[in-house]
Every structure is written in C-alpha cells, then in structure tokens.
Specification:
The protein contains 8 helices and 5 strands; from the N terminus they run H-E-H-E-E-H-E-H-E-H-H-H-H. It has helices at residues 23-29, 49-59, 96-109, 129-136, 148-161, 168-177, 182-199, 205-211, and strands at 38-42, 63-66, 85-88, 113-117, 139-142.
C-alpha cells in the first residue's frame, strides 16, 4: 500500500533558483522600503512566488498568512498582527474586510506588507471599493515563465526533492516535450511520482505518455 507521505518543501534562500525571469521581483524584495510599505508580487503558477514570499518573511521576521483562510467574524473579532506581513493568495481573500483591516493596521504601525497573487490588482476583482483602490495604488512586480536553462534546473530540482532517480534520457525527453511553464513541470513531476509510487515502477517514457497525455507535446521529432 502506498501512503501519500511527502516531505515539506523547504522554501529557503539557498534553494531558490535565480534567473532573469525572477530578477525584477528579487530586486524589489531586496529593497529596504516600498511606497506606503506595500508590495504586490504576481505571476503564473510554478514561478517561485510563494518561495520568494517565504524567503522574504524569514529575512524580515514577517508573519505569513494565507488570504484564502480569512473569514468574517460575526462577533466583530478580527486578525491583528504586530510586525511585517507576508500574505499569500492575496488575489482571492476569503474575506476582503480582513485584508483591508490588515493593510490599515500595517500602515498605522509602520510595518511592511508583501502580497502574492496570480494576477496584479488591476486584473483582480475586489468587491470592497476601499480595498480595490488601496491595492491598485500598491507597487507591483512580477515573475515570468522560466527560461530554458531554468526549466531544466527546475525539473531536476523537483525530482531531487521527491528523491526520484530518473535517467538522463528520460529527463531530457520530458524537458523537450513538456510545455514551457513552471506549473506544467510541477504538475508532471507530481503525477509521475504518484503513479510510480502506486505501481512500484520506475519513471519511464512509457509511464509519462500514459500519465501526461494532456501535457506532452508532439513527438514528431522522433525518439
């Protein structure tokens, strides 16, 4: 029986893979101050946003919150945080009023707030006008899809994190035939790991063809 046990991802500075696609974001995060103390980091899935948020939170002793877990309290109670804040999934808060209160508190206290989302504030929908206005006035930076060198390194890093031993011929083949996005690499490695674990087999091209039909691109270039 295969149990879905996974080692937690270590989002540390030494494990982050730097590249031109995340250079602008890293430059903004290294600044000692942001306009009004706020920064919004956005970009596609699988491009290192949560990793960057975690590294920044460790460096600046920030409290990490997931905005999707925010909820309205009928008793009037709400989250109060002293110190810097790092808010993941800020473009999909469970309760917008909670996010607005946190931003107001941070501004009053002189604390910094890093927010991360898939989309920039200008392309995200917020029902609260005050929150929408505040976020659209926030400085933004972005991560882009990985370059070829980064894709190759990321694929190997994802396999290594799961302690998967895959032949170079298979990793090279996967790199050539998977879409050029970070999310595709993450999804492919997760699915291949689960299938190989359940079947007790190695990760091969045949397994990849079976498990990733929606991801793999044409093989007209040959084997």
């Amino acid at each position: 029986m295969a149990f879905p046990l996974r080692r937690p991802v270590a989002f540390t500075a030494d494990r982050f893979i730097t590249s031109p696609s995340n250079a602008a974001a890293r430059a903004w995060l290294s600044r000692k101050a942001w306009p009004d103390g706020r920064l919004w980091l956005w970009g596609p899935a699988g491009t290192g946003k949560t990793h960057l948020l975690s590294v920044w939170a460790q460096e600046y002793d920030a409290t990490v919150l997931d905005a999707r877990l925010f909820s309205h309290s009928s008793s009037g109670g709400r989250i109060r945080v002293q110190g810097n804040l790092a808010i993941d999934n800020a473009d999909s808060p469970g309760d917008e009023a909670t996010l607005l209160h946190l931003l107001n508190d941070a501004l009053a206290q002189g604390d910094r707030v890093l927010m991360v989302g898939r989309l920039p504030p200008s392309r995200s929908h917020f029902a609260l006008a005050d929150l929408a206005s505040r976020l659209r006035a926030t400085a933004t930076t972005a991560t882009g899809e990985p370059e070829d060198d980064l894709r190759a390194t990321l694929l190997l890093s994802l396999l290594a994190h799961r302690q998967l031993v895959v032949s170079q011929s298979v990793t090279d083949w996967l790199w050539r035939h998977l879409p050029r996005t970070g999310s595709a690499l993450v999804s492919a490695v997760e699915r291949l790991d689960d299938a190989a674990l359940a079947r007790g087999t190695a990760i091969t091209r045949a397994l990849a063809r079976e498990m990733l039909p929606d991801l793999l691109m044409s093989e007209h270039s040959g084997e």
